[in-house]
Design brief:
The chain has 172 residues and is α/β, with parallel strands linked by helices. The protein is built from nine helices and five strands, in the order βαβαααβαβαααβα. The chain has a five-stranded parallel sheet with strand order 2-3-1-4-5, with helices on both faces. Helix 3 packs across helix 4 and helix 4 packs parallel to helix 5. It is globular, with a radius of gyration of 15 Å. The protein starts with a strand and ends with a helix. The model has no long low-confidence stretch (mean pLDDT 90).
Length: 172
């Protein structure tokens, strides 16, 4: 079995996932990185060239494959769990689903502090990646994140190491 990390972009899934995998002696995989590798272009380019439906189809193929891995920490893209088939693949195959919860203001600050975000990530609404987009998407996704999660970690005021410690404590 594996552990899946879910949450909005900027919640720390990749950073925390790598640390958690290291602590467990497991491998780490990021679904977005796998999508980029398979497509040979950034997620922003996939959205621009092929559209969001094509991206979501590729994402679903990757999620289905990753959900079957053993002894992995898997970071999923923020919108991956919005497709029922992806949720079913996760629930049937992983030990724990960890929701890295973070408020919209902190997410906004983190996203805009990352210089690679603009080059690699598309805007997902007409709000252009700002705080209104984050609030809108987070409000729509959070009920799904909470319903799917077996562990919820508040990450806004925690360091990545502290988040890992909480995950490990709740797994026991």
């Amino acid at each position: 079995m594996s552990i899946v990390l879910i949450g909005y972009r900027g919640s720390g899934k990749t950073t925390i996932g790598r640390l958690l995998a290291d602590r467990l002696g497991w491998s780490f995989v990021d679904s977005d990185a796998e999508i980029v590798k398979r497509a040979g272009k950034t997620i922003k380019s996939i959205f621009a060239d092929d559209g969001e439906p094509a991206f979501r189809d590729l994402e679903s193929a990757v999620v289905l494959e990753l959900a079957g891995l053993q002894d992995h920490v898997i970071a999923l893209g923020g919108g991956a769990v919005m497709r029922e088939a992806n949720r079913e693949a996760i629930v049937g195959n992983v030990a724990d689903v960890v929701y890295l919860h973070c408020d919209a203001e902190t997410l906004h600050a983190r996203i805009h502090a990352d210089p690679a975000t603009g080059d690699n990530r598309p805007h997902l609404t007409q709000h252009g990646g700002g705080i209104d987009e984050i609030r809108q998407l987070l409000n729509g996704r959070e009920p799904t994140y909470l319903a799917l999660a077996s562990i919820v970690v508040e990450v806004a005021a925690r360091t990545p190491d502290q988040a890992v410690e909480q995950i490990l404590a709740e797994m026991i």
